[in-house]
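Posting for a labmate who doesn't have an account.
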Amino acid sequence: MIGFNNVTYTYPNGMGVFNVHLRILPGEFYFLIGPSGAGKTTIIRLIYMDMFPDRGEINVNRFSSKKIRKSKIPQLRREIGMIPQNFNLLNDRNLFENVALPLHVIGCEKKEIRDRVMSLLIEVGLEDKAYEYPRELSGGEQQRACIARGLVKDPDIILADEPTGNLDPSTAMQIMGLLERINRKGTAVLMTSHNYRLIKELGHRFIEIKNGIIQTG
């Protein structure tokens, strides 16, 4: 599903990721752990093909970083749900509208949008918050809204970039439980984190990255 073959990406300041080999299988729950600045978000962006490696190849489902045409990148991204650390909800739109936005972008019909969004809000426990605005939600509720938005396109893969980083421990565990339930339904999850204790207690497969170099696998 996701494969990195000897991938290097270097920023102008010399930081980046170097000689990365990585395999994530369909339906797997996989953690990428490491301190801030280690290269975790860079790997997420490379999978999303927001940028391309200087060397090596990335394969995501049937798409290759070496062969993909620019016009096909939106098709790739329809198969990936993104969950950012900092929520990135639009403050001038209510929760329903925030979650629905990706479906408007890909041209879904109004009834399909309503059915999909309400179904996901029920799944993440926010059906009673559908018409509230981000400023009216707690941090945990905003993160659950981001998970719903990430799932609304029915993706094969969820990329969760430090989704518990801004949450208290109790809320973080609730978010982890939600991601695990999603994974059990067949969606692959790649989650980055610097919280070693949280990750190691859960027992999923993980690798560690430091200074852009994979340490363990």
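Reply:
Got it, the structure tokens are right above this. The radius of gyration is 17 Å.
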